[in-house]
Structure formats: structure tokens, C-alpha cells
Design a protein that fits this description.
alpha/beta, Uridine Diphospho-n-acetylenolpyruvylglucosamine Reductase, domain 3, Alpha-Beta Plaits, 8-stranded antiparallel β-sheet, 41% helix
């Protein structure tokens, strides 16, 4: 993609700005590439990205922008960057308010208000409000990364909007920097004396108020006629609500204006009490059409919300991390298998008794209504249960993106809104339209508000995709207009704004006048929503003029597209921007707040790197920027477990490094650390000398200088322990002693033997964990066999030594298959190392599935104890807290429940800790250049909990225990070590 022709003017603008700017300015190739996409089908590369530190910074930007020599420079504000319509994409300058301007300034629980900066994330605000029993109401599927500024700019809404309305219903005061650099403060003014209240404002601001009043007062009939009467009406430039009999409120112009009138920097928000008692009633239907038809009956008792999803989303959820928490609500019965649509009906009440009565009335009502067939019904009661079910609904967008094949759901007509009473008929015609175009699709949405999200499956790399997208859009526009609806019911207009004149009708020229008042030179997110009347030749951007991501994607070699897997299908949904420090998703992004260091950012860079490789446009500077982005990845694999599309950055990182170092020289440390597993057994006989040397200052200095390592793991004093003395049977290369007692298939769980597959860490560095595992197995009547130590190659893979990893993997697979042939279960202890066998060892050809299965310790043990309960339970001593390894938590979410069930067998209580990453992640925390970030990551989530709860905190990961020991000098135990204390 070529740079914008005004780049030289932009450089001059940025140079002048930088002289007196507190924030950050970045015009690097990599950051521009990352900001060229959002969650839409479009791709526009900006000329620079600015991260203002405060409101003064933004005022400097806009006061400079208004100078005559810079009238060709354009800016676009950006929050979470998850828009589905390119609202924050530009070929100008992006202003990202999320990095620095993300502070909650004030909470007033008595007045029920909060004042926040624009970069505050919605869930961040609600977490701070929860102790006061309050929340900010508009609900979004992207609530863990959507910023308040972004919500205001798109007038966002979602689940529960019939009760709670849209964002503008909860905005009390706004501070917006307008083109002159002035700070415009807006709130509801009384119609009778607004002139008096605006006398203190500047001449420019008084003129804006006066002109807006005249436009709205003199054109009331036209305005009322043009704007449809919908819950999700036209967002932005909301002329019907700017002026009424009581109030004059410019907030209704700014909310939903997508940064085309100014840059919102601060907001005072109205808050609501958290519903005291809530319940979800989950209803399954034989067809999606019946789920839609049932909305009329469901709404009669005025529930809080009615959400719907189709069978495609439900079936995709069954293979996602979220299903572990919701399976109980959607059953495995014969009826459940017939479900093709689901409605999630939320009811609430002020007391539990009232909630039960409301549930009774609701069930009586729908049982008496026979207009549709309802197959199943279940209830989710309580905050946690409801949260789990809604988590599935919130992941619907991402789940649809995880379908197999090159055709993926694309957002371009996916948030239409029509009167709810017409929704079923409208959707029937919508589906017929898509069927005529031979398009598959998934659907979900808010039937109570008449909004449904429809995403046709298309391969945007197809050269015919643009024409098909335009043809479908035109037909949907005609259909939606005929049903008195709007094309943009929820997600904003953005690069679909060419259709604005159709839906605004006779009011569109009035909107152009409003635009001219704020932005006479068309510099604020131009081409979106409206052009200014002051520039008659300005045009709205047509969807056929905007570069699509598919255009760049099809330049990537098909072999590379296939090799780099699911990462190529990153759709920008932004799940990796999760603000929650106690969530493991992408610790490198959380600690840097740099989009480059997110899975989405890294996926974008890798795709562009592959494109340039194929088109021979590669340059060393950009390639180094890609390397730096990937080098910051901890390879924790949380992305591949938590991303709905299963973007796997550690896998992509390994493949990139493999190619990168075919052209570039490796650091000697890479060779050392990647072969650490191989060296360890050879160093074991001299472990005492090795440990002693590691404590000498000259050795420490040499390692930091030569190898850039801050520390290296030490051998445990018991590293040379004879495992046979603890009751284990050591296996040699010949497994005949096991095969002679092979069991029939299906009887493995009744066998009294297991084979432990050793890992380097619990064998040599944290040996007591292995020894006590052997002891516990013996106590419960199991004979543990020990497979000869074999490096599994994880460090080789992490550092991109793929040829060596492949050779090692194939040798190990032969041994594992031979061991599996005995019929004796294979167990691993360290979760990160064990999961390598079912992830990195997974064959590219799934038809050639491995014969072996290496279970994690708790997976086997929980199943065994179900059939062989312990004879005696101890008396509860105290509660323990489980700090599960982040790879384990995200790849195998059932793991925590298994540990809890094992502890319960012993009469012990185990509570899961909500934690982010510990910051160690294998070799990452040992590397000098990562030490500072490693410690910051640990401090974000782990440190306070370890300080408060140790020694009752138990950690499953060796890396986690190592990090705690080196930072806080506390030795956390593995859960098996506690079990060893209580199992007799």
C-alpha cells in the first residue's frame, strides 16, 4: 500500500507538534501497519499514530491543525480499535487515546455519576463501580476492551438496550476538543435560557450553539419525518433529540458522530444500581425463524433483554474454551441436538422472592403460548452463572470467525435494525437474499430491539469479493429501507457512510451544515457520516474505493497462508486487548499498552511481512520491527486458547524466527537456551560444581555480558536422587516388561500402573515435585514407571530451531507411541511441557493422528479417584489457593476443576485464583532485555496475591514457582505436595 500523497505535509505537522508535545508520536512502518486495520474488512494505512498524554496535548494537535498550511492534514480519533466498519481507519493521522488517557477521575456514589477520560475501558469502569453497587449500563460484547470514548463516538449499545437505552442516554457532560483547539464543554441546557448559560463561552462556541438551535428549531417537521422511530435509530447528529420542549443538548450531536465533530476527551456519566437479583431463561428452538417469531411472546412480560443466537454459533461454542462453563445449560439430550436457535431471556427483580414469582409468571405465560415449538428450557441463576452464559454470547463474533476454510464471516451488513414486530419477516427476506447469492452465514443479536447481526461467509481474497460485497450491501440497503429500518443499528457508519443520504433523507443537508460548523475544512475523520456544507466538492467515501484487507491477503503465497495457520484469519475482533490484569490474555500487551505487542498487532505484522516476502518488497527496517514485536512475545500461548479465532502467535513466532535466522546471525544465547534440556542430564553429575559457579560474581557478570542472561536455573540438591528408592520403576529402551501385561482397550483406568514422562524442570530443578508425585501415586495404590528422560524440544520450538525440533519430535513420537502401545496411561507433571505433546507435536495432517496421549497429572488422577475414592478424608485444615499455569488455564480450562475435585476427595478446599501471567514463561524471564517487563508483569497480578495468601498459594507451573522464588523469595508448592501431606 502506497503512502498518502500528503505525507510531506504530515511530517512537517508532526515535527512542529513534537516540539511542545507530552505524549508519544510514532510514524514507524510497523505501527502504521498495525493501525491500518480494525475489526472490519477494510485496510487503510495511516501516516502516523499519536498517543496524547492529556487534554492539553489534544488541544495542541487541533489548534495546529486549523492553521492554513495544514488544512490538508486530517486526523481520526481511535479508542479500542474494534470497530466493524472502519470508523477509526484513515490515511491521515490516528490519535489513540487508550494508551495514556485511561483514568477514572471521580466516582460519586451518592449522585451516581462517574467522570472518566475517554480511554477508560467499560469493564474497567464497572469493576471500579462494583463496590458501590453501581454500573455503567450500555452492554457490549466487546466490553473488556471497548473504551468509553469509542462508545460515545459510536453511541454504542447492545444487550438490554430496551431497558437501558444507548450510550447517549447515560452521558451527562462531555468535554470535546474542537478544531480551533478549544475545549467545548456540553451538557443539557434549559431551552428557555440556553443563551444566558452560554454567554461565558467563546465566540466560536456561541456561534455553534446559535446555529444548531436555529437549524433544529426551524426544521422540526423535516427532522421528525426523516429520522425513523427505532430503539436503535440513526446514531450521530441526532437532531430529533438535540432540541425538545424542555432541553437543548449538544451531546446528542456528538454521541455517535465518530470523531467527525471533535475529539471527546472526558465524560461525566450517569450510573445505575446493579440489579439485585437476575436470572437467565435459556430457550431452545427447532428453527432460528421460530426463535425470532417468539420474541413477541417473550417481550410481553418486559424482560430485561432477549438475546438470540443461531445453531452455527452454538456449535462453534462447543469447541471453544467457553463451553466448559455453559454446557450444563444447553444439555446433551436428544432434544438439545435438534436446537437450531436459542433465546437468552434475562429477568431481574429487587428481591429473590419477586424473582421467583416473575419466573413463575414468565414460564406460565410462554407455556400457554403455542405459537412456536420450544424444545428445551433451562435457567442460569446468580451473577457467575449468568456471566458464563453471556460470555458465550459475547464471543459470537469471534466464534463465527473460527469456522474452517477460507470463507469467513465478514462484517459489512451485520447490524441492521428494523421495528421488532417486523424482524422475523425481515430476516426471512434477508436470508432469501443471501441464499440467492449462494452465501452461508451466521446470525445472533438482540431480538428485543430488532437488531440482528448477520455475517455472510466470504473469502475476501477472491478478486470477485468486492463486487459481491457491494451487490449484497445495495440489496440489504433497499430491503432495510423498505422495512423502515436503518443499516447501522449498533456498530456505527464508518466506511459505509455513502448510504447516509438514503437514510437521513431530507435531513442530510442539515447534517452537512452541522458538520461545517465544527469542521469547515473536512479534517476530522473525513468521508464518514457527512461532508461539510462549506466544501461542496467533498465526497463521502464509497465502499468500493477503500482498500480491502483481502487485497493484501491474496498477495501472500498460498503455501505461506496455509503454513501460518489460523493467525492468517485474525479478524481484528480485539479479544487480545482485554484490559483485565487478572486475565492471562497477552501479558506483553497489558504491560506495554502497545498494540504492536498484542496478538492482533503481531498477526497483522506477520501477514504484511509474508506479503512483502512474496512481492519482493521486503526491507530490513520493517523486518527488524516484526522481529522486535515477536521477540516481545512470552510464548505463553494464552492467545491460542482465548482468541475466538485461535490465533497462535507463539507458533507463528517460531516459524518467523526459523526463516529470519536463515538470513541473520543468531545470538549465542539462543543456541544455549534452546538446548538447555539436552545439556541438563550431562551436567547433572557435576551439579554441585555448576551451582557453585553460578553464585560467583565473575560468572554472573560473564553470563550477563556474553549471554544476556540475568540468571540460570540451579540444580535441586535432590536432582541426582535415585527414583527407584521412592518406589518408581525405571524403564529402559525396552518396554517389554509392560507389554507382557497389556490390558484390553477400555480397561486402562482400572490398571494400577502409570508411565511418567519426565520434564527437565521437575526432574532436575524442582525435583521434590517429581519425588512427591511418585509417593502420592504409591499411596493410592499405583505403580509408577519412569520413561527414560527425553528432551521434548519446547525451547527449540520457542526459539525457532524448527529443523532440530522436528527431528527431536519424530524420535520422541516413536518412543511415546511405543509406550502408548502398552495400554498404560502416560502422565506429565509440568503443564506447559506436557501440553507440547498435544500442540506442537500435533501433525500437520490431522488424518495422521498420533497414537499416544500424554495426560496432565490432574486429568488422570481426577478420573482415577472417581472410580477409586480415597478411604479416609482429612479434616479441613485451611483453604488453599490454586495459581494455575496460564498455558494450562487457557488451553485446558477444565484443569482447575479437576484439581478442585481431587482436593475435595481429600476433604480439602481449593479455590482458583484469578491471575494474569507470572512474567517468567520459560526462558523469557531469564533474558536480560526482558527482565524489567517480566517483573512488571509479575507485579500486575501475581505479587499482591502471593503476598497476601502465601504459603497457601499453590502453583502448577515450574516457571511460576521460579518467578515467585526469585522476586519474592518465597517457595510455592505444587498441589501434589499438599496432597502428599494429607493422603496416608
Amino acid at each position: 500500500m502506497n503512502d498518502h500523497p500528503q505525507q510531506s505535509i504530515t511530517k512537517q505537522f508532526l515535527k512542529q507538534l513534537d516540539a511542545d508535545f507530552m505524549g508519544d508520536i510514532d510514524s514507524s512502518d510497523a505501527v502504521r501497519q498495525v493501525y491500518s486495520t480494525d475489526n472490519s474488512i477494510y485496510q487503510l494505512k495511516p501516516q502516523a499514530v499519536i498517543y496524547p498524554k492529556n487534554t492539553n496535548d489534544i488541544q495542541k494537535i487541533l489548534s495546529l491543525l486549523v492553521l492554513e498550511q495544514y488544512r490538508e492534514v486530517v486526523i481520526t480519533a481511535r479508542g479500542g480499535g474494534t470497530g466493524t466498519n472502519g470508523q477509526s481507519l484513515t490515511q491521515g493521522i490516528v490519535i489513540d487515546l487508550s494508551r495514556h488517557m485511561n483514568q477514572i477521575l471521580q466516582i460519586d456514589p451518592v449522585a451516581r455519576t462517574a467522570t472518566v477520560q475517554a480511554g477508560v475501558v467499560k469493564d474497567q469502569l464497572n469493576a471500579a463501580l462494583k463496590p458501590y453497587g453501581l454500573f455503567f449500563a450500555p452492554e457490549l460484547s466487546t466490553s473488556n476492551r471497548a473504551t468509553i470514548g469509542g462508545m460515545i463516538n459510536t453511541d454504542a449499545s447492545g444487550q438490554g438496550s430496551c431497558r437501558y437505552g444507548k450510550t447517549h442516554h447515560h452521558v451527562l457532560d462531555l468535554k470535546t476538543v474542537i478544531l480551533s483547539g478549544e475545549l467545548l464543554e456540553t451538557s443539557a441546557l434549559k431551552r428557555t435560557n440556553w443563551q444566558t448559560e452560554t454567554e461565558v463561552k467563546t465566540v466560536l462556541q456561541r456561534n455553534i450553539y446559535k446555529s444548531v438551535f436555529e437549524i433544529t428549531a426551524e426544521n422540526k417537521t423535516v427532522i421528525d419525518k426523516s429520522f425513523p422511530k427505532l430503539n436503535r435509530s440513526l446514531t450521530g447528529y441526532d437532531l430529533p433529540h438535540v432540541l425538545n420542549e424542555e432541553e437543548f443538548n449538544l451531546n446528542h450531536l456528538i454521541c455517535g458522530s465518530e470523531g467527525t465533530l471533535g475529539v471527546v476527551v472526558e465524560a461525566k456519566l450517569n450510573l445505575l444500581p446493579i440489579p439485585a437479583h437476575r436470572m437467565l431463561i435459556n430457550i431452545g428452538y427447532a428453527s432460528f425463524h421460530e426463535a425470532l417469531l417468539d420474541a413477541k411472546a417473550l417481550m410481553k412480560l418486559q424482560p430485561l433483554s432477549v438475546e438470540t443466537i443461531d445453531s452455527k454459533v452454538l456449535h462453534l461454542a462447543k469447541n471453544d474454551i467457553v463451553w466448559n462453563n455453559v454446557a450444563a445449560y444447553f444439555g446433551e439430550s436428544e432434544q438439545a441436538e435438534l436446537i437450531q436457535g436459542i433465546n437468552l431471556v434475562e429477568i431481574d427483580a429487587s428481591s429473590e422472592q419477586q424473582l421467583m414469582q416473575l419466573q413463575h409468571e414468565f414460564l406460565q405465560h410462554i407455556q400457554s403460548d403455542q405459537t412456536v415449538q420450544r424444545l428445551t428450557m433451562s435457567t442460569a441463576v446468580g451473577e457467575l452463572a449468568i456471566h458464563h452464559v453471556y460470555a458465550m454470547r459475547k464471543r459470537a463474533v469471534g466464534l463465527l470467525g473460527n469456522v474452517q476454510g477460507e470463507k469467513r464471516p465478514q462484517p459489512f451488513v451485520e447490524d441492521t435494525a428494523v421495528p421488532p414486530e417486523h424482524l422475523a419477516d425481515y430476516i426471512a427476506e434477508f436470508r432469501a437474499l443471501l441464499d440467492r447469492e449462494h452465501l452461508d452465514y451466521g446470525m445472533f443479536g438482540h431480538v428485543d430491539a430488532g437488531v440482528l447481526h448477520v455475517r455472510p461467509l466470504m473469502d475476501m481474497k477472491d478478486p470477485n469479493a468486492l463486487a459481491l460485497m457491494k451487490r449484497v450491501t445495495d440489496q440489504v440497503v433497499e430491503l432495510t429501507h423498505r422495512y423502515h429500518g436503518v443499516l447501522w443499528g449498533e456498530h456505527g457508519k464508518g466506511l459505509r457512510s455513502e448510504y447516509a443520504p438514503i437514510f437521513f433523507g431530507e435531513s442530510y443537508p442539515l447534517i452537512q451544515k452541522i458538520k461545517a460548523l465544527f469542521d469547515p475544512y473536512n479534517q476530522l475523520n473525513p468521508g464518514k457520516i457527512a461532508t461539510p456544507a462549506s466544501k461542496p466538492h467533498a465526497q463521502l467515501i464509497s465502499i468500493t474505493e477503500v482498500p480491502l484487507r483481502g487485497e493484501a491477503d491474496r498477495q501472500i503465497a498460498p503455501q505461506d497462508w496455509s503454513e501460518f495457520g489460523s493467525t492468517m484469519h485474525c479478524n481484528g475482533n480485539g479479544a487480545c486487548f482485554n484490559y483485565d490484569l487478572d486475565d492471562p490474555m497477552c501479558p506483553s500487551y497489558k504491560v506495554t499498552r502497545d498494540r504492536i505487542h498484542s496478538p492482533k498487532g503481531r498477526a497483522t505484522l506477520v501477514k504484511e511481512w509474508l506479503r512483502r516476502e512474496q512481492t519482493q518488497q521486503q526491507d530490513q527496517i520493517f523486518e527488524q520491527q516484526v522481529y522486535d514485536a515477536l521477540h516481545g512475545c512470552l510464548s505463553c500461548k494464552s492467545c491460542s486458547g482465548q482468541c475466538p479465532v485461535k490465533v497462535d502467535i507463539p507458533d507463528v513466532k517460531a516459524k518467523f524466527l526459523h526463516r529470519y535466522f536463515q538470513k541473520n546471525k543468531r545470538h549465542i544465547r539462543d543456541h544455549l537456551m534452546s538446548r538447555l534440556e539436552i545439556f541438563i542430564p550431562k551436567l547433572s553429575p557435576v551439579s554441585a560444581i555448576y551451582n557453585l559457579l553460578q553464585k560467583f560474581s565473575p560468572m554472573i557478570y560473564l553470563q550477563r555480558k556474553l549471554f544476556k542472561l540475568v540468571d540460570i536455573p540451579l540444580f535441586h540438591p535432590q536432582a541426582k536422587a535415585d527414583l527407584a528408592r521412592y518406589g518408581a520403576i525405571l524403564l529402559g529402551s525396552d518396554l517389554s516388561q509392560l507389554t507382557s501385561h497389556r490390558l484390553d482397550q477400555g480397561d486402562c483406568i482400572t490398571d494400577k500402573r502409570v508411565i511418567i514422562v519426565q520434564d527437565a524442570f521437575t526432574r532436575y530443578f524442582d525435583t521434590p515435585v517429581l519425588l512427591e508425585t511418585i509417593t502420592v501415586l504409591k499411596k493410592i495404590g499405583i505403580t509408577p514407571y519412569i520413561l527414560p528422560f527425553m528432551p521434548n524440544g519446547k525451547p527449540l520450538h520457542v526459539h525457532g530451531f524448527l529443523n532440530q525440533f522436528e527431528q527431536l519430535k519424530q524420535r520422541n513420537i516413536e518412543i511415546l507411541n511405543q509406550a502408548a502401545a502398552t495400554g498404560v496411561p502416560l502422565l506429565g507433571i509440568d503443564p506447559a511441557m506436557t501440553l507440547v505433546f498435544r500442540q506442537e507435536y500435533l501433525p500437520a495432517d490431522m488424518a495422521n493422528k498420533a497414537q499416544y496421549q500424554v495426560q496432565m497429572l490432574q486429568e488422570w488422577m481426577s478420573q482415577y479417584l472417581q472410580q477409586h475414592p480415597l478411604n479416609s478424608k482429612c479434616k479441613q485444615q485451611e483453604k488453599y489457593f490454586l495459581a494455575a499455569h496460564c498455558t494450562e488455564r487457557t488451553q485446558c480450562p477444565h484443569s482447575v476443576h479437576q484439581w478442585k475435585s481431587i482436593f475435595a476427595q481429600c476433604g480439602l478446599e481449593l479455590e482458583e485464583l484469578a491471575l494474569g501471567c507470572c512474567g517468567m514463561a520459560g526462558t523469557y524471564g531469564h533474558e536480560a532485555e526482558h527482565r524489567e517487563l517480566s517483573l512488571k508483569i509479575y507485579a500486575q497480578s501475581w505479587q499482591s496475591k502471593v503476598s497476601q495468601l502465601s504459603p497457601r498459594v499453590l502453583a502448577t507451573g515450574y516457571s511460576c514457582r521460579t518467578q515467585v522464588k526469585r522476586v519474592d523469595e518465597k517457595q510455592l508448592l505444587h498441589p501434589i505436595q499438599i496432597l502428599n501431606q494429607f493422603i496416608t
